[in-house]
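Suppose you are handed only these lines of text.
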Amino acid sequence: MSVALPTLTPGDAPAVAQPSAILGTYKRAPMTIVGGTGAELADETGRTYIDFVSGIAVNALGYGDEGLRDAMHRAADGLVHASNLYRTEPGERLAAWLVAHSFADRVFFCNSGAEANEGAFKFARRWARSIAGPEKHEIVGLRGAFHGRLFGTLAATDRPLYRAPFRPLAGGISVAERDLEELETVLLADTVAALIVEPVQGEGGVRVLDPGYLRELRALTHERRVLLILDEIQCGLGRTGWLFAYERAGIEPDLLTLAKPLAGGLPMGAVLMTDAVARAIQPGDHGTTFGGGPFVAAVAEHVVQRLADPALLAAVRAHGAWLGEALTELAARSGAVRAVRGVGLMWGLDVQAPAGEVVERARAAGLLVCTAGEHTVRLLPPLTITHDELARGVARLEEAVGT
Ligand code: PLP
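From them, the structure of the protein bound to pyridoxal-5'-phosphate can be written out as follows.
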């Protein structure tokens, strides 16, 4: 898709934020995005930017993807919504596909990442109550975690600034240190129902949890009869170069949450679970009006098939390896970068300057990046990005980072 752009001279329009009727929960950049092609976005002046944000890990297939557009057109020819009082074919097919390609036996559909994690918390509690009674109810998250901003998920999210204005937070949910010895003690308590972990902590600074560490967590949770919930909302569905990040560690969780890229930019989340968990859930235990509707499910079926393509996953791994080396060299040359971390097409750079300043300088240089904490710049390019787009983006990043 090429975008019809307004007839402004690139860069000419004043970058002044106009008054907006949208509630100010986000500090928005002072331009308006009007369209995009491949891994590039265009603003209202016609200026283009290489996009290393992907709508915060949503636009895995980039912009103007023909297959995605056709899937949306086909989906629009069918039912848009029917409610969860009835079966619909796209929802059934998508659930069957996810079960066939993962550890899971059952799937619950919802509409966002936070909603998927809230669902996982409820399913974990229901399971724990069914095997041990109401005492076993606690959900434990890890230091540096981000699981969402609803009340349950906020209590498992380790971001003091997000939490402080909304206390008291939901009870029975706590944050533990990542340290294995400490976790062993925490999980000793008979009150713990589940541990929730992002295999790659995204918002918390792009911290790739070591596969060996994940295996230890799996062994520990098995031993303590605690469910392991993996939050792959940001790092799942191909972003690490594996369809699911857990595959890299050779483990299987009890529950797994997905969202962001799942329906190609349409709102959708999913909770995948084992039969042991699913058996504890009864009709009425949970629900959501829009979850897994036929329109989003039909689009998601196209997206997951594309993201599971071995050629795409191999390209993510190859591009990721190149990007990691390029960033390491950039860091060695610059002196303004303290550390580089990442896997696949998910990278973080610890920078000396406030990360927000680097984001602004990158935008001025024609590159979109985002932050992951005060001093970390986060890179999440579309998974379909070409080598040329990646290399041009890194050159602009070097300009933004400075020396
Ligand atoms: N979990 C992780 C790992 C995330 O990165 C996010 C969003 O950034 C969420 C949960 C929350 O997802 P949503 O914004 O769709 O509620």
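What can we learn from it? The two ends are 38 Å apart (CA to CA). The pocket of pyridoxal-5'-phosphate is lined by residues 56, 112-114, 117, 146-148, 198, 202-203, 231, 233-234, 259 (CB under 6 Å).
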